[in-house]
Amino acid sequence: MKIAVLPGDGIGTEIVAEAVKVLKALGLSFEMESALVGGAAYEAHGHPLPEFTLKLAQAADAVLFGAVGDWKYDKLDRPLRPEQAILGLRKHLGLFANFRPAICYEQLVGASSLKPELVAGLDILIIRELTGDIYFGQPRGRRTAVDGHFPGAEEAFDTMRYSRPEIERIARVAFEAARKRSKKVTSVDKANVLETFQFWKDVVTEVGKEYPDVALDHMYVDNAAMQLVKAPKKFDVVVTGNMFGDILSDEASMLTGSIGMLPSASLNDKKQGLYEPSHGSAPDIAGKGVANPLATILSAAMMLRFSLNQEEAAARIETAVQKVLAQGLRTPDIYSEGTTQVGTAQMGDAVVKAL
Ligand code: NAI
Ligand code: MG
């Protein structure tokens, strides 16, 4: 089991160190090798995703990733910015399916911004398509308008695109995931306005016929955004395109209490995956030893489950995390009165002890 460890920038190094500690405590034999990525790699090698780092990731069964970025790189040309490293890794590894489970742990029900009864027991899975949609569609650019409401004016444009194979493979991933859960998929689109998403809806419906045991419903994205805060527990697996998934998964993250609790997995068709917390490098708290490492530790659990075939070890980590929460240990982002405030390393140590 080969793991490429890419801590990155800011709190990335602090939280990944805790996840590595937890992985080592499992007593399994991993081959773990680290490399620089993002701003750290730019400083050392002049590029956010150096050849060595990319090769290491490509040769691994899984990548454990921290976060990249810092405001001090904002003035760099776009291809040299730290964030390009994560886009490059997604592209080179063919990672097309992004899993973001939003689970509200019993101990954190009070930390959510929604009423306790709306989030108690919440366990939904948002699956976002990662390679297509308006984020990558060509053509795009700026030009002088020849038609539209203001001919002759300066304008900008992007192209929303999805191909049948792209939709089919993400739909299959969603139906397969639902089979292991409560057998319900909600496909989110904007078929009433966008041809791309009428096509999305048609193709998902066709693929759904291969899964008669899974219930499929369709929802417009604006309604889905509303339902997520009105009655989030009505959802189980949500599958959607790149842009809608970006927005809805951030919305869902707040249901769980803190972005510091949310793991994620990005997978390709060979079960190779990149595992990272949903948050960024948090420059505002970097170096202070207060970042919540649980999202990264839970991402390591997803890595064991999806890429390394170690379901039992994955479940052990998840149980250990619930145990430390039940003990009342809290990093500042999830702290509430009556609990015990701890730092990043103490939280990691507590998970190791609970294992
Ligand atoms: P962020 O997620 O880094 O931080 C947002 C807020 O959440 C901050 O107040 C931060 O202190 C807090 N926070 C985040 N993670 C936390 C944790 N584990 N424990 C406690 N508090 C936590 O997002 P922001 O500030 O918009 O971006 C900072 C940098 O991160 C930027 O350069 C951005 O481009 C980059 N970024 C990188 C991502 C990645 O590597 N995949 C994803 C998102 C942002
Ligand atoms: Mg986002």
TrEMBL record:
Catalyzes the oxidation of 3-carboxy-2-hydroxy-4-methylpentanoate (3-isopropylmalate) to 3-carboxy-4-methyl-2-oxopentanoate. The product decarboxylates to 4-methyl-2 oxopentanoate. Coiled coil: none annotated. It is found in: Cytoplasm. NAD(+) binds at residues 280-292. This is 3-isopropylmalate dehydrogenase. The record marks 135, 190 as: Important for catalysis. Residues 2-351 form the Isopropylmalate dehydrogenase-like domain. Binds 1 Mg(2+) or Mn(2+) ion per subunit.
